[in-house]
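Weekend entry, working from home. Most of the wet-lab plans are on hold until the incubator is repaired, so I used the time to fold the two sequences that have been sitting in the queue since the last round of cloning. Logging both here for the record. First:
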Amino acid sequence: MNAARGGSNKTAPEVGDLVGTLRRRHKPDQPTDADAKVADTPAVSPSPALRPAEDVPLALPAPYEARNDGQLELAERDDLAACEAAIDGLRVAFWAAGKALQVIRDARLYRATHTTFEEYCEDRWEMSRSYANRLIREWPLAEALVPIGTKTLTESHVRELLPLAEEHGSEAALTVYRTVVEVDGVRVTAAILKDVMSVLPDDRFDSAEAVEQIRTYLAGGQERPERAEASAVETFAVEAGKLRTILQRVVKRDIVRSAATESPEEVKKTVAELRALLDEIEQKVL
């Protein structure tokens, strides 16, 4: 709108690359369970795998938790077929793939063939879990944006708008996107959206004010503001805040206690290294 299993450095594939990958994995001479299911389905009630691409999102179930740890039930196999059909159409409905991946992840529909969601993504789709999680994070906003940019919406657009939606709500992102789409002579691109949002205040969002600022900017009446270099104090505060958040999460989830049970020496070693770094920071300011 960019870590695969076993510590691989393979980067997440782009949408175009994924489509080819997904299609190659459905070889005609090696029918999948979903293909066999389609063959047995009456013509009056087509399987999700046979639906036109534009109908695939409508066939997807809402994300839900797994009902049991055993074999997939008939309804779950139907859900898996619908979700995989959506992922196979990633180029034209990346957001549907994100929704499908969330269904598979949350309901653990992968459990019939794979131990973890990460293994499923890597083996079934040659997709890193980080990329799958990104699609899952993006799909709710993308689904809301589709009616506005049916012919123009791309994943790069959603990627640019997502921080705004997470900070000020999806309506803010919808307002920005709708305003840009409605300006005559402007081709919506990720770069345009990035520039447009750079003229908006960081600390607040007012719809009427945003619309006026965006239209003025796109009409050439407002220069893109220069972002000031972050001071050393600001940089330190941001980076230290990230570290604090991570450590608080580790403590809250009681990961330390679990890790100490498995390998107390490793935990002690890590704590000692962190303490040494904090001592070094303290010495620099004394």
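Second, folded right after the first finished:
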Amino acid sequence: MVEDPCFTGIADLLATLALTPAGVAVDEEGILPAGLRRVLARPAAALIVTPRAQNPTGAAFSPSRQRTLRSILRTRPNLLLIEDDHAGPVAGAPYATLVEPSRLGWAVVRSVSKSLGPDLRLAVMSSDPITAARVQRRQTLGIRWVSHILQQLAVALWRDRSVAQLLARAEKAYAARREALLRALAAHGIAAQGRSGLNVWVPVPDEASAIQGLLQRGWGVQAGERYRLASPPAIRVTVAALPPGDAARFAKDLASVMAPVGRSSAS
């Protein structure tokens, strides 16, 4: 079971392992309880969720959604629960886990790619003993060995107060850029979501037309097709390098791109 829309890396991994994804719809507070109940009615071995900064929608678990989802998952204590907390300290939302002491199989993975830098190629994991042992066995294979030098560097950065201050500033900057874009889109009547993280998810009538029109105006965005299982068309806008001052111009350009599409489809 995966989120829908789902991060492309997870979808590609499942395809490589010949596993069939079952999508659970997402809103700004994470996976929908009704969708989770529906998918749990079918055979399923695992649930992969992103507690915050969900890619591509920016969803983040609210306290009420966390409680509801935990209650539903208690009916399946043997289900393997995997949380992908990839953004960590720059997510722009507090961490809310679905893992409880009664959960037999679970893993929480937190990458350093979004916070300390992708070149470190590192993540930390906490899990139940059996899952930890399985991962450790996989890590002993030569190509999966992780450099001790890089591990020590990551630990040194975590201990550095100046780095912690820098990450706090980065989190605020990402949040300001995300919120500026959401306000600019709303001013043009364009619905979008991006509660946390580095992306804003914008439903559009036609992905190809929106992407082409924005490209002609100097903007690069990601098509939602690769992320979607059954969810409707949308584009992913990354805000990491979009200053608040440019948000209004982007929203205006997107509105002009979507306007003829909307008139055409309405006719």
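Plan for Monday: verify the second prediction. The chain is about 40% helix and 15% strand.
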